[in-house]
Specification:
Layout (H helix, E strand, L loop, with lengths): L4 H6 L1 H5 L3 H19 L6 H15 L15 H9 L6 E2 L16 H13 L12 H12 L4 H4 L3 E7 H16 L5 E5 L4 H8 L4 E5 L1 E2 L4 E2 L1 H10 L5 E5 L12 H13 L3 E6 L9 H4 L1 H8 L4 E6 L11 E7 L3 H19 L5 H10 L2 H32 L8 H4 L4 E3 L4 H9 L3 E2 L5 E3 L8 H14 L2
Parallel strand pairs: 1-12, 3-4, 3-7, 7-8, 8-9
Antiparallel strand pairs: 2-10, 5-6, 9-10, 11-13
Helix pairs in contact: 3-4, 6-16, 6-17, 7-16, 9-10, 9-15, 11-12, 17-20, 19-20
Bound molecules: ligand PLA.
Length: about 475
């Protein structure tokens, strides 16, 4: 019996090296294993009672049918990265901005706003369900421009959300409740979490063509015909700028045609704006697609996020805006968004909302933010160019790498398949998503050549 791997695991010598809590759990598990093996008869009654109750607790869990969930395709990459001890490792998985030294970056303007907030010593009372009024005003104005008729006519229902994801989720709940027979059309491919959000909200979705691997560009004809073919009154999810993961946006002319088709089909445009100001460096330019749709008098939904453009990832600050045909409708829509939010999370967190409101509401801080945002966008553009130059200089196969320069935003869609992406990670310690996306925000100039070597090797030597 002593030779049984189960019982030898339970021996006190094996467990004594473990820290206290782990040792307890270890012994607990071993005890339950031992129980199965020996049976109750061999143990005196006092021990038996103790061990049986422990054993029951472990073996008869009500949760035994819960299987292990797979790691998240994006956030799980960071977990794997942290476990790698190789010096050359690069985390190009999640879209989080890093400095040239590959350190996380807190914007100076955010630090200034926080210093002011500390001085003011504001309280921590609950926010109203819809969030901080000054934030909701600032966020809608940033999106549409202060003089936009939709703002002046009070036709926008704005509710502060738990960043982009929470705002999308709230909109999905609104669709599920008020448009139960409608579906959402999402681009193929899209940000990995979109499908989860609609699945969990029980909103049916289907895909429209977006990316053409042959041209490494937009499949515009495919996109238009799929939007046309969808049942009238569908929601069409569009990335306002810097499409994730492809980095390919429609041209202004193509946006107009997309709007024409959506209008013809009575669809409802639903924008995900997670990168305003981060794509081009200009807040206004990156909002032009949304503003064009609003200028047509359409009703539309827009989810916003301040994770990237203000680096407020962990503050979970964003908003859902619903542009309505009248202020009266907007009023009612807002009341229902609040009704959906209340049982989900009651009311949103205050800190990030105050940061945004204080920065946008102070002309000095606002200008400083725009400069810092432009410099973050500029750093990403410069590593994009350096990566392209390194690929061209090192690869003599004649492959055209210029698609990398045509993409915008923080990502590059390399065209590497899953096996090639695995090679990037397993051989080169470059962590990225398995769809071939790399986050250039996690790259420094010093690492561009190394990354180019990894891409060239994976592209040519792995099929
Ligand atoms: N929408 C899109 C298109 C996004 O790319 C992201 C973030 C979000 C919404 C949500 O961000 P938020 O909830 O933090 O506001 N996408 C990241 C991170 C940057 C992630 O997957 O959560 C990405 O690496 O794709």
């Amino acid at each position: 019996m002593a030779s049984s791997p189960i019982l030898s695991l339970a021996s006190s010598t094996a467990s004594s090296a473990l820290p206290c809590r782990r040792r307890f759990l270890h012994n607990l598990k071993a005890t339950s294993n031992q129980m199965t093996f020996l049976g109750n008869d061999h143990i005196n009654s006092k021990q038996s009672f103790f061990r049986t109750s422990m054993s029951v607790a472990v073996e008869n869990s009500k949760f035994t049918d819960i299987t292990m969930a797979p790691p998240d395709p994006i956030l799980g990459v960071s977990e794997a990265f942290r476990a790698d001890t190789n010096e050359m490792k690069l985390n190009l998985g999640v879209g989080a901005y890093r400095t040239e030294d590959l350190q996380p970056y807190v914007l100076n303007v955010v630090k200034k706003a926080e210093t002011l907030m500390l001085e003011w010593a504001e309280n921590k009372e609950y926010l109203p369900i819809e969030g901080l009024a000054a934030f909701n005003k600032a966020t809608a104005e940033l999106l549409f421009g202060t003089e936009n008729p939709v703002i002046l006519q009070q036709r926008v229902a704005t509710v502060q959300g738990l960043s982009g994801t929470g705002s999308l989720r709230l909109a999905a709940a609104l669709i599920e409740r008020y448009f139960p027979s409608s579906k959402v059309l999402i681009s193929s491919p899209t940000w990995g979490n979109h499908k989860n959000i609609f699945n969990d909200a029980r909103v049916p979705w289907s895909e429209y063509r977006y990316y053409d691997p042959k041209t490494v560009g937009l499949d515009f004809d495919g996109m238009i015909s799929d939007i046309k073919a969808a049942p009238e009154g569908s929601f069409v999810l569009l990335h306002g700028c810097a499409h994730n993961p492809t980095g390919i946006d429609p041209t202004p002319e193509q946006w107009e045609i997309i709007a024409d088709v959506i209008q013809e089909k009575n669809h409802i445009p639903f924008f995900d704006v997670a990168y305003q100001g981060f794509a081009s460096g200009s807040l206004d330019k990156d909002a032009s697609s949304v503003r064009m749709f609003a200028a047509r008098g359409l009703e539309l939904l827009i989810a916003q996020s301040y994770s990237k453009n203000l680096g407020l990832y962990a503050e979970r600050i964003g908003a859902i805006n619903v542009v309505c045909s009248s202020s009266d409708v907007a009023h009612r829509v807002k009341s229902q968004l609040k009704r959906l939010a209340r049982p989900m999370y009651s009311n949103p967190p205050i800190h990030g909302a105050r940061i945004v409101a204080n920065i946008v509401g102070n002309s000095d801080l606002f200008s400083e933010w725009k400069e810092e945002m432009a410099s973050m966008a500029g750093r990403i553009k410069s590593v994009r160019k350096k990566l392209y130059d390194s690929l061209c200089a090192k690869d003599n196969s004649g492959k055209d790498w210029s698609f990398i320069l045509k993409q915008i935003g923080m990502f590059s869609f390399t065209g590497l398949n899953k096996a090639q992406s695995d090679n990037m990670t397993n051989k080169w310690h470059v962590y990225m998503t398995k769809d071939g996306r790399i986050s250039l925000a996690g790259l420094s100039s010093a690492n561009c050549e190394y990354l180019a070597d990894a891409i060239i090797d994976s592209y040519h030597n792995v099929s």
